[in-house]
Amino acid sequence: MDQLALTPSIFSPRNFFASLGQRFLNFIRHIGGVSVLAGRTFRGIFRYRLDVGELVRQFAVIGNRSLMIVVVIAIFTGMVIALQLCIGLGRYGLKLNVGQIVGLSIFRELGPVLTCLMVAARVGSGIAAELGSMVVTEQVLAIEAMGANPVAKLVVPRMIATVVACPILTVIADVVGSFGGMVITVREAGVTTNFYLDQIRNTVLVEDFMSGIYKSVFFGFAIAIISCYEGLNTIGGTEGVGRSTTRAVVFSSIVIFISDFFLTKLIVFL
What we know:
Elements lengths: L1 H9 L2 H35 L4 H39 L7 H39 L2 H7 L4 H39 L4 H11 L2 H27 L4 H33 L1
Helix pairs in contact: 2-6, 3-4, 3-6, 4-6, 4-7, 4-8, 4-9, 6-7, 6-8, 8-9
């Protein structure tokens, strides 16, 4: 009876709004922390000497971790889009236009968004786990004790490598996704390969291609900064590393989807 009497107080409006307010404060605190780290990272690029060896190593790691999964996701994305368009447009006798829509959708949206989501899941989680483990084992404190700047040594190479790798992976995803769409379009719509490629060349403009590249640069920056922030703010031992890894992937994915809308509006406006 006592437990039942206490149950309503647990779910009282006061507790609900207190929890909601705490979540809001944590959200604001998180945005502030990420912004501060981004500013320190930009300063670190110009104030400290870049560790080229670490930069090359991070770039190779990001490429090895992401390339195959990006290729697999891209080719099946292109195939599925083409298949659905062949079914939908076929009802109106417009199967010949499938290549145009496949090209625009992949180059403008699906290429950069899906690629960076895979980078966030594969690379962002790795960055958060690696830095989180260094924090837990006090390696970051050791770097500070030796007089080095942890942001310049740990964050800057990972940020630059991710920003450079994301556009390259996006270009690969665009090409592979268009190829996957071509395979299905040629088979289902009955068009030739040259006809499909002509549709891509005549429909996808340089502005369409560059809009995806611009987005991937911003997405890569967001992934790197958020993942590094979560890793460097790990608390709670090995369990904290797992929580930081999960938050890095979730927050990076959310930022990618939200910023995609505003970047699209900005690009269209400009």
